[in-house]
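Follow-up to my post from last week.
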Amino acid sequence: MLVSTMDGRQMPARNLLARLLPGGIAGVILQGLLILVLALLIFGPLLNLILWAVAEVWYFPYKLPVTYGTKYWAQVFGPQSDAMASLSTSIIIALTTVVVCLLVSVPAGYALARRSLPARAFVMLLFLMPQAFPNLAVYINVARLFYDLGLNGTIAGVVLVHAVHGLVFSVWITVAAFSGVNEDLEKAARNLGASPLRTFFTITLPQALPGILAGCIFVFLESLDEFTGTFFVGAPDVITLPMLLYNASMEGNYQIASITALILLVPSVLFMLVVEKFMRPDTLARIGK
Amino acid sequence: MPVRHPDPQLLEVITMKQSRIFTLMMLCPALLMVVGLFVIPLLSSVESAFAVGDRYGLDHFQKAAELYGRDILFTMGIVGLSALIIALLSITISGILTLSGNRRLVSLLSALYRWPLFIPFIVAAQCMRTFLAKNGLMNNALMSADLITPLQAVSFLDWSGIVFTFVWKQTAFATLMIAGAMAAMDKSHIQAASNLGAGRVRILFQIILPQVTGTVGVALILSIVTMLSVLSVPLMIGTGTPTMLTADMAFRISSYGDYGVANALGVISWLMVAGLAWYYLKQSMRNNTAGAHH
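User reply:
Got it. Predicted complex:
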């Protein structure tokens, strides 16, 4: 590729970018050093977590675990363990939260994408608010409200708290997904005699599905990782994985805490690695509009 | 007898009305959820912060200031310092991603910085609880590298650990937003400046940054909101006093059932965000009008 310089000469674009770097080799070394320090700071804490997960005995002043082993893994993954019970509680809550979010956000997303609405911007903003507010005090008062309704300490209560927090992802991403659907195809289906409902399920929904699925993953992870809301609304009856991690850590049981943390880490890291493949750029560009 | 056709205009009005009602029905469940589980608890929180017996007053705020005045300042300090470091780091990383000509470095850096993006705070807190401890991996590594002596090893499980954890987690998010905005920029400005002989650092600060200040502001405000909401990090890392407001609120509820003071502290943390958002809006409006005069 050639680009024009101010005096009209043509020069290769690569040379132009190279000119932006200070001092060639020194610049590369400086950037390489920054990346190295960044890598140590990002992966150091994760490495420490992994070490604790496979350490059976580790005490001061040893710099590395004294004995390694999987004793604690057997404890965590044993059939009667608290961790397995928490894992299933967490997954049940996360899946139910996804279903609740889908049920309310697919119609809402379609309405916001397709139909003219007074105060549309305000409605969109309203769904963002639970994420744009320091929400601890809100949870305290939700817990007080739920106490009167008998929802405190129940799975249903925790699901509702997680769902309202996940709603911004599911609604905003669903709106973006529906806006990307080709309206001419819908019109063609209607002209050929398909009912509105049939058109929606055979034409509109399949096209919006990748975006809606991406929204579901966001909601699932948000629910799986949620701590503060569960702390106030669920505890002590509903013990999700983050609650179990917290309890184990505060009791000083670092092995159990680290293994639990690893279980939570896997889906988060996987999602970070695939998120760009899941979110089509055109959907991504429409989010929040 | 001639058949009377309905007035087409009237028909249109009726369909529009039906359509409007249908739209509202589709929105209703989602709206009810936000109102019932966010707006009403929020309003009841504010009400409870000001309610003293059967009248309204500032008693809870006075008590909150007496008991937790130091923690209010401590929270502002921690969040402010973290936001500053997050801004510096994410602008530096985004700048390198946008301007570096070395493609291998760029792909390495962009694969690296986003690791903490979706890692939950509670997992990050557990990592740091071990990593930053006096006999944690960081001190051990520094000792093995002969950078510090065993006597110099100190625990970072205090305010510095909280700042480290917040920066570790939120820099990924801020960088993702800022680098995205920089990538979407019109590249001709950078080329023009470079043709005129501007260096890389100057281009970053004088050409690129002024065009993405909006995104930087939003990324920082969202990060600050997050830091003011997280409970697990101060509970697990910030042992001792002073501590952050979130820990105080949880303590007020679990130990005393004192909703008044807890909600007053909640209102105080909202005021911090509101003040910041107001400053940001004022600033961006001033920039917009300044831009219009050019």
